[in-house]
C-alpha cells in the first residue's frame, strides 16, 4: 500500500492481489477536485504501478458519494488560466492513463465534471452505478477545451451528443451514457466494486503482453490525425504563451491608440 497526502487530499494505491491494484483519490473538502497536487501524486502512483508490472488498475473514489470528482480545482485558476494545456498536470495524467502498460478501469459512483469526465473516458473501461453523471462544464467558465480532449470524446460519443455536452454543460445521465457506450457496465451501487473486481480478475488471467500490445495499437489508431495530437497540443501551448505575453497586451493597446507597437519579445 502506498499513500501520499498533502493538506486535505490523498491518493492511495492498494494491491488487491498480485495482478490488480486499486488507485483511489480523495479530496473531500473540494468534492474530490483534481488539484495540481493530487494529479501529480496520481501520476506518480501510476508510474509506480507500471514499474511493478501491475496489469490491471481500478481507478476511482469511494462508492456512494454524490460527486465522483468536480474536475479542476477552480481555486487554482487564479494562478493558472489554462489548466488543460500541454504539459499541465491533468494532461500528463490523461496521457499516463492512456499509455499505461495494462488495463485501467474507471469505477464511477456520483457525478463527474469537466476534466474528471475526461479522466474517466481516458480509461480503458468504465464501470458505473446509477448515480453516475458526466457533465462537461468548461463553457460555464469560458474555458475552451483542447483538441486532444475533444478527440477523446469524438472517438467515443456521437457527434451531436458531444456537442450537446460541450454546448449546454448539462450532465449525461448513467442510462444515456450506457446507451452511447461511455459506460461498459451499469450496475447497482452495492454491486459496483464486486463487478469491477470481477472484470479486473478476468482480465488479469489473460496474457498481459498481448493486452498491452492491443491497447497501444488502439491508442495509436485513435491518435492518428493529419497532425499528431501531441504536436497540436504543443502548438496550442505556444499560442497560449503568446496570448498571455506582455507583447500581446502591448499590441492590443497600440492598436486602440493607433500607434506602432513596441515589442520586447516577452
Cα separation of the termini:
46 Å
Using only C-alpha atoms, the radius of gyration works out to 20 Å
CATH architecture: Alpha-Beta Complex
Number of domains: 1
Q: Identify the CATH class.
A: Alpha Beta
Q: Helix fraction?
A: 40-55%
Strand content: 15-25%
CATH superfamily: 2-enoyl-CoA Hydratase, Chain A, domain 1
Overall number of strands: 11
Task: Describe the strand arrangement of the main beta sheet, using strand numbers.
Answer: 1-2-3-4-6-8-11
CATH topology: 2-enoyl-CoA Hydratase, Chain A, domain 1
Please provide the ordered H/E string of secondary-structure elements: EEEHEEHEEHEEHHEHEHHHH
Organism: Paraburkholderia dilworthii
Protein name: Methylmalonyl-CoA decarboxylase
InterPro entries: ClpP/crotonase-like_dom_sf, Enoyl-CoA_hyd/isom_CS, Enoyl-CoA_hydra/iso, Enoyl-CoA_hydra_C
Family: Belongs to the enoyl-CoA hydratase/isomerase family.
Secondary structure layout:
Layout: E1 2-6, E2 9-17, E3 20-26, H1 36-51, E4 56-60, E5 67-69, H2 89-99, E6 103-108, E7 111-113, H3 115-122, E8 125-129, E9 133-135, H4 147-154, H5 159-168, E10 172-173, H6 174-179, E11 185-187, H7 192-204, H8 208-223, H9 229-243, H10 246-256
Parallel strand pairs: 3-4, 4-6, 5-7, 6-8, 7-9, 8-11
Antiparallel strand pairs: 1-2, 2-3, 9-10
Helix pairs in contact: 1-2, 2-3
